[in-house]
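Holo prediction — uridine-5'-diphosphate.
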Amino acid sequence: MSKRYLVTGGAGFVGSHVVLALLDRGHEVVVFDNLSLGHRAAVPAAALLIEGDLADAKQVHQVLAQGPWDGVLHFAAISLVGESMKQPFRYLADNPGNGIRLIEACIQHRVKRFVLSSTAAVFGNAGGEPLTEQAVIDPGSPYGESKHMIERALRWADECFDLRSACLRYFNAAGADAKGRAGEDHSPETHLIPLVIDAALGRRPEIAVFGTDYPTPDGTCIRDYIHVADLADAHIRALGALDGRSVTYNLGTGRGNSVMEVIRSVKRVGGRKVPVRLEGRRAGDPAMLVAASGLIQSETGWRPHYTALDDIVRTAWAWREAHPHGYNALPVAVAA
Ligand code: UDP
């Protein structure tokens, strides 16, 4: 049955891929985005785009009043670990403030299902094992802390007002839509895979490797890179898991890859050289973050479709090669 969803941050990287997945399944989607980080052209024409800001309580209530909504999916946030170490109070004020404003409006307008785009950064410097949902919460950055604060607000929204929620803690979102309809376009770009691809394509002189003295086999940080379409599928399954309860799921492939392994993967996929410069550590980076995703698998049947790093990188390469200027070079999508 077709349902109707509100997606904040639907013009951003993960949000836009979730919007596509919802539309592909026949649902109706309204995107609420201030376009400060997202792109108008990332919102498919079949979705309605409402330009607005979560900082503005009046606007938030106006949008929620346009229900009924079968669910609200909340992606809109500032989300850079390194930036959050330089601007901690902006992260600690804005992400929870906007999140709680949205949650309150959802309660007021009788929304029953809420999905939060959360993060593995809630775990901080976690050690060597894949992380289950029971792992100790100890954010290594104000960014991770800010998302955990929204998770806590949702716990009380469930307890006090029966708003059921799914907190989805993504590990490293990567890749692009297999049909080429969406991809990753941050400005400035700070994420590893797109930057390595740019170095391979000669669009930047080199890739800087942040830290070679971590306690990992090759000394570089290990992350669990998960394809954005697998994340999108998980959101849809999580919405269905909220019958009378809230859930928290870790979302990754269970496979860790070091920065050096990512660079080698891009070389293989693109068949190009990648100039590398070794640098010191970036503040806030844990040595290793790998997900144990058994819970969402057993409770919803979710499985990552992209299990090999090269397959993830291949989709990212295709989109980045085809869009040297990201979404800017595309015709602007007209909202329905
Ligand atoms: N990284 C790097 N060089 C870069 C960008 C990132 O070595 O130019 C490293 C970063 O230190 C981390 C990993 O790549 O260990 C993934 O970083 P990214 O910013 O993509 O995601 P994060 O893990 O911060 O969410």
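READOUT: The pocket of uridine-5'-diphosphate is lined by residues 81, 172, 190-192, 195, 207-210, 221, 223, 259, 282, 285 (CB under 6 Å).
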